[in-house]
Amino acid sequence: MSEDIKKDLSEIELKVYAVLFEGKQNEYSDEIHSLNAILSKKIIPKRKIPTFQELYNSREENQKIIEMRKKTMNKKLIFSLVAAILIAGITFAIKNFSSSSVEQPTMQAKITFLTGEVKIKDASGQEKPKVGLGTMLDPNDTVITGNRSSVEVEFSDKNKIRLKSNSEFSLKKLSLAADSSEQEVFLQRGMLVAEIKKQKQTDNFKVTTPTVIAGVRGTKFQVEVNPQKGATETTKVTVSEGSVGITKRTKEGLPETPEPVQILEASEVAIEKGFGGEISKLKVSEEKINQEFAATNDVESEKDLAVALGRSEIEKITLEDKTVLRGVILEMDENFFVIQTLNGIIKVDKEKVVSSELEPIK
């Protein structure tokens, strides 16, 4: 840079120039070298991001134009033009570096329990091999259970659904962002139970059927679908805890109305009369609710439970309040363990355990 241009630069601009092009050190060196290092990374495969020096030198290609305008342009503008090129390069590099180096959160769904005949088909209809505990589900996978079969699917945020015998559902949406999540399950036929943890306002969990959308936030509920032609009750939603908003579903899969047509609270049931018919709500007893949910348990004996989880023994746990738990321990840490019982999965504080023993299955 000629001295006549340098004289128009501020003290800060001179120091920046000295670091970039003269190899000198000053209080701006660390920041400039860090940005230069980012620009030097190959952020995009097969595309090299130029360094500061290369960006500056690239102006030589347009030197004739610069010379022609040099007499009429403010000399300081030439340096500002180079600075603008550098800033554009820095912005581009930082944006791509950040998006490629920061790992985005992902929502996953995996099988945590199954018994009997369970099949999984991908979006193309191809059946997946070796379905078992720990099998991961992909968006648009379809899960099918046979006679006397059931499967439990757990999501990354600990939400879970359990599918009863002779049922079929598809995983339509599975996304997780820094401040929100979205999960949508389509129940084509049969029955499922969903246990949804308390969520943020930005979280969205839905169970859809051919004619109904059930939107929830922090609840335990059951959905049953009978797609048979002429069925008097096509979709039935039963709520055990929390609340569920029921909306009619269009053929395109969208809500028919902006607001739910029914809001269900604990111990309430919504029944759709016929395919796409009116949805009515009624109150039922807690005993009736318990009977409804017990009907989804296709594991009828401790032997079924042990065989389903690949065990030959049942754990008998006695707690300090004299409660006795019988089942299979799924996982544990220093303070807690999780046991699968015939009535569901229970998390137990180790300090409350009085005794524990293994019993062969009968």
Unreliable stretches = 41-47, 69-79, 97-104
Q: Give me the CATH fold name of the largest domain.
A: Jelly Rolls
Shape field: extended
Could you state the order of secondary-structure elements as H and E? HHHHHHEEEEEEEEEEEEEEEEHHEEEEE
The biggest sheet, with number of strands, parallel, antiparallel or mixed sense and barrel status, is: 16 strands, mixed
Overall pLDDT level: 77
Beta strands, count: 21
Helicity range of the residues? Answer: 10-25%
Rg, Cα atoms, Å: 31 Å
Query: What is the CATH architecture assignment of the largest domain?
Result: Sandwich
Compute the separation of the termini in Å: 90 Å
Write down the domain tally: 3
| Structure annotation, total helices | 8
Based on secondary structure, the structural category is: alpha+beta
Strand content: 35-45%
CATH uppermost class of the largest domain: Mainly Beta
